[in-house]
Design brief:
Distance between the termini: 49 Å
Structural class: alpha/beta
CATH topology: Rossmann fold
Radius of gyration: 15 Å
Number of strands: 3
Largest sheet: 3 strands, parallel
Length: about 100
Amino acid sequence: MSALTTTQILRETLAAELRRDPALLLMGEDIGAYGGSFGVTRGLLAEFGGERVRNTPISENSIIGAATGAALVGMRPVAVSAGTMTAPSRAGLRATVSMMPTTV
């Protein structure tokens, strides 16, 4: 039995969740046909289509904003990123969320 790589585990987990939950969608830079910077999303575009595996602009602020909006309307976004530029985006997310009205 061969050990799975981290990339394989992530890909298999994302695929399983996409199959299980129709509200889940992936968004990130080059995650479609290219398969992500480390190949984590390779093959997912072919299986789930462009509505659920979405390429985004090279702008972490845009990715975070789109994911926040998708979550607000009931989707379950997973923002896929190499993680190198997300710190500035978190400040914008905190500012946006802090101004949202709370409902029960």
